From TrEMBL:
Keyword set, alphabetical order: ATP-binding, Membrane, Nucleotide-binding, Transmembrane, Transmembrane helix, Transport
One GO cellular component, as annotated: plasma membrane
Transmembrane segments: 43-62, 82-106, 154-182, 202-221
Chain ranges of the ABC transmembrane type-1 domain: 24-345
Highest classification ranks of the organism: Bacteria, Pseudomonadati, Pseudomonadota, Alphaproteobacteria, Acetobacterales
Organism: Gluconobacter cerinus
Membrane topology of the entry: Multi-pass membrane protein
Domain ABC transporter: 378-591
InterPro entries in alphabetical order: AAA+_ATPase (IPR003593), ABC1_TM_dom (IPR011527), ABC1_TM_sf (IPR036640), ABC_transporter-like_ATP-bd (IPR003439), ABC_transporter-like_CS (IPR017871), ABC_transporter_sub-D (IPR050835), P-loop_NTPase (IPR027417)
Name of the protein described by the UniProt record: ABC transporter
Keyword field contains Transmembrane helix: yes
Length: 596
């Protein structure tokens, strides 16, 4: 049983409750950036962002004071001080706006650094110990790619936005509530038969209207949140279909399925469009309600302060300052209360990301012990391969010993478990029981039926992580010639999608050539020459068999390939039997094909 050893590892993960695991993951998302060696970048940036936020709110409060003084000077025709206040107003206003934009820039930088860190860690955890393979094979998580690319971004921007927005709103509420307390007057009203008197009429008006506005918007907004989430889902479905058409272009073209695919795309597009229209209708309603509320909140402080102005208890500047403070307080209160939709969207993304993380951390159900020893032999004993959710075993092998230089072929009917056995040897199939030991110092290379050729030049694809030295280039050229791809030597530096350009048989030859850039001690082939004609397959096998130190384990169906091996593991009725192969010695082939 293996637990992924990653920067996110935690012991006995599966024994913890889901809530614990979620909180742990949230702690990791925050701690992996702010408590890691990145703290030297993270904390100064965060403190700078907070300073700018608080400074901006504080300066805005000062700006409202200057604004008041300016209007008071106008009211009392005190012309001499007007230029000074006007300059101060422009200077402080410019500073507020500059700080706001600089703050947004810094927040974006911090958000991107944080997102990058978490994406790197999640990707590392996903790719470590072949977790991505087990998760895909068991179909445990859908669209892992989308979760890494999209949900990390949404979670970071959501968590950061909620944190910064809440602090800014709380500070703003404190400052502008204090300011409005000074402008408020006593008011008496009746509520549920009780007479209530408060000294803070303007403050009360701001809180009550904000709560009411939030209630209305929240009611309508819940539907919008659902529509937003559905939109993401529909967009994801559309992307998935388009990617799958691109990936399976040839199969679709041969099957003449383009009309069906077109219909699938049109249906997915239609779901995107209809949901988008519903989303837009709801957005218009919400914007309309918000505009009305905001107009009302602009007029309300005037309604409350004008009688005091008329009675000479307030200046014109007081009215202007009160109105501005009232609007800022209302929008801060409303923001704080409207945080719920943002929270629910962030929570939905967090949940999706957590499901992936959880799947990565969960150890595989396993009974097969794979270990590495100092022995040169590969040894299999008491092996039982099972399928998920099925009690009847797929395949049983009592004892199987593979000595260095052995050439084994695995045969059996389709679906008998040949590839599954190879997966078990590679540590990619652990369901069952028994033990497999592999030589610890041997280089083992597995070749599936079709190789993985990501975008790149042929030289990059061949060398993988090795540096492209002159010797390495010569070796690649020689191997391409050995495996009958001499025409590719001139194209070593050409990049592109070689999976598309090369025929399956050429891809198989390329994979064999690539395998010998770092020559393996044990080469395991899963029908890795199935796309070749008999002569070419024979010749390539002759090349492999001519390497006496190379241990070869091949899955093959064709008798000519089977005959080339000196030992055979045959699977029938769920049981493996070991034997020598037919007497056709590969030696004659070797002599005629020694140089391919
Ligand atoms: N992830 C899985 N979940 C459930 N069943 C699986 C899974 N992977 C393989 N199987 C089943 O295990 C059986 C053996 O599959 P395997 O690929 O090993 O057969 P094979 O002998 O290599 O077949 P072929 O010669 O056609 O390649 C098949 O019935 C297959 O459907």
């Amino acid at each position: 049983m293996t637990t992924p050893v990653t920067s996110f590892s935690v012991s006995a993960w599966e024994t913890r409750s889901r809530s614990f695991r979620k909180i742990y993951f949230l702690g990791k998302v925050v701690g992996a950036f702010f408590l890691s060696k990145d703290w030297k970048k993270a904390w100064p940036l965060l403190l700078l962002c907070l300073g700018i936020q608080f400074g901006g709110v504080y300066l805005f409060a000062i700006e409202t004071g200057i604004n008041k003084a300016l209007f008071d000077a106008l009211q009392y025709k005190n012309i001499a001080v007007i230029p000074r206040y006007a300059i101060e107003f422009v200077a402080v206003g410019s500073l507020v706006y500059s700080l706001t934009y600089f703050g947004v820039y810094l927040e974006n930088v911090l958000g991107m650094l944080w997102r990058n860190k978490i994406s790197v860690l999640v990707t590392e955890a996903w790719l470590s110990n072949d977790r991505f393979y087990f998760i895909e094979r068991a179909e445990r998580v859908e669209n892992a790619d989308q979760r890494i690319a999209e949900d990390v971004r949404l979670v970071i921007s959501g968590v950061f936005g909620i944190f910064m927005g809440s602090l800014r709103s709380l500070y703003s509420i404190a400052i502008f509530t204090a300011l409005l307390v000074r402008r408020s007057a006593p008011v008496t009203f009746h509520l549920f038969g009780h007479e209530i008197t408060t000294r803070y009429d303007i403050v009360l008006a701001a809180y009550v209207t904000s709560i009411l506005a939030t209630g209305i918007i929240f009611r309508i907004g819940r539907k919008l949140t659902r529509l937003n989430m559905r939109q993401q889902h529909y967009e994801g479905d559309l992307r998935f279909i388009l990617v799958s058409v691109r990936k399976h272009a040839e199969q679709i073209a041969f099957m003449a399925r383009s009309r069906i695919e077109h219909l699938r795309i049109v249906t997915a597009l239609s779901a995107v469009m209809h949901n988008y229209f519903a989303q837009q209708r709801m957005s218009v309603v919400i914007s309309f309600v918000m505009q009305i509320v905001s107009h009302f909140q602009r007029v309300l402080p005037l309604v409350l302060t004008i009688p005091r102005y008329m009675a000479g208890r307030m200046t014109y500047g007081d009215i202007m300052q009160t109105q501005s403070a009232f609007q800022t307080l209302s929008s801060s209160l409303t923001w704080l209360m409207q945080m719920y939709p943002m929270y629910s969207e962030t929570n939905a993304s967090f949940d999706r990301l957590f499901v992936l993380f959880d799947a990565i951390q969960m150890p595989e159900e396993t009974g097969i012990a794979l270990s590495h020893t100092a022995s040169d032999d590969v040894s299999v004993s008491g092996l039982v391969l099972s399928l998920p959710g099925k009690s009847a075993p797929l395949l049983k092998i009592g004892h199987w010993e593979i000595a260095p230089g052995d050439k084994w072929v695995i045969t059996g009917a389709s679906g008998s478990g040949k590839s599954t056995l190879l997966r078990a040897l590679a540590g990619l199939w652990q369901i069952g029981e028994g033990a497999i030991t592999l030589p610890q110092d041997a280089r083992i290379t597995f070749l599936p039926q079709l190789p993985y050729l990501p975008h790149g030049t042929l030289l990059e694809l061949m060398l993988q992580t090795q540096p492209p030295s002159k010797e390495a280039r010569e070796l690649c050229a020689d191997l391409l010639c050995q495996f009958r791809l001499s025409w590719l030597v001139a194209q070593l530096d050409i990049g592109g999608d070689w999976n598309q350009r090369l025929s399956p048989g050429e891809q198989q030859r390329f994979a064999l050539a690539r395998a010998f850039v770092s020559p393996p001690d044990i080469l395991i082939l899963d029908e890795a020459t199935s796309g070749l004609d008999q002569n070419t397959a024979d010749a390539l096998y002759a090349n492999l068999l001519a390497r006496p130190d190379l241990t070869l384990i091949s899955v093959a169906h064709t008798p000519n390939i089977v005959r080339l091996h000196d030992r055979r593991l045959h699977i029938a009725n769920g049981t493996a039997t070991l034997s020598e192969t037919a007497p056709t010695s590969p030696v004659s082939l070797l002599s005629s094909n020694r140089k391919l």
